[in-house]
């Protein structure tokens, strides 16, 4: 997730993603290219590209002859299953890659943690949710799990549709700091314990 989008497509994609996470669009509703293009003051091309990317990320679903629909959040049983798979992906990648985690990669993880802290301090729920996911993704990349990111993003997008853990913003930050601390020490067991405590 780009912090400084350089293209119109990136700006439109980020804004629509923010709207989806914040609940601006009702689950099951159809999104129209022409309406969003008018809202953002752009041609339909960037909106179409955003729809493709957000469908790949799992927020939207294409329906033949109908268009693009906002996906429904998972039911409680499905969410529990999705959470379990997400935990397995993150712990698998950490177990494989933490021993070779470079200092340079760790700097990127710490930068993502800093951005999460800023979001928590500002109290913007949607931004916190997105920075939360960005932090976890930075760990996957740092530990060599780039190949897992695509499938992992699909799971995260489903969880973000029902993101409800934002009652205590500083607790959100503390949980992620408690992941970063053992990660920076290359303590695999403690990092995984902190990951499991956070992903619920």
From TrEMBL:
It comes from Rubripirellula tenax. Residues 6-73 form the HTH gntR-type domain. Keywords: DNA-binding, Transcription, Transcription regulation. This is Putative HTH-type transcriptional regulator YdfH. GO terms for molecular function: DNA binding; DNA-binding transcription factor activity. The keyword Heme does not apply. The keyword GTP-binding does not apply.
